[in-house]
Amino acid sequence: MASKEQTPIHPTGYEPQSGDKKLSRDQVYLDLDQCQVIIHAGKPAQVWVSLVGRLSDPCHLLRIIVSPLSSGNEINLEVYSLFDPGQACIMVIKEFSIEFPLGNYPPGKYTVLVNDEQIGAFTCSNSTTLP
Predict the structure, then answer these.
(1) For residue 21, is pLDDT > 70?
(2) pTM, 2 dp
(3) Omega of the bond leading into 16 within 30 degrees of 0 (cis)
(4) What digits encode the pLDDT tens for the residues 33-42?
């Protein structure tokens, strides 16, 4: 019997951490034209997102929150950065390019949003995922 829930992902280090409340929040500059949904083959297939962007400086920490699946099968990622305002840091932009696992999903059509901007969609059928 197929699960009706998304399979949880393993920690990546980009999830909110216990010490984050002591830090200040800032935006992330995403290159949405280069962000995309990636399907890794397997049974069940694994869904990932490729995120490309910039942080304000090397002291900023990237954070990603995956919201619970909406009733419209939207997967929304909240991508932001954190920094310690009391820490001196070199003023140079830090570029990043990462692949972040979303897990696998029950059969259906899904839309992936990053900070409320659509970056792609995919369809799952009987634990096999097709772009």
Answers:
(1) yes
(2) 0.85
(3) no
(4) 999 999 887 7
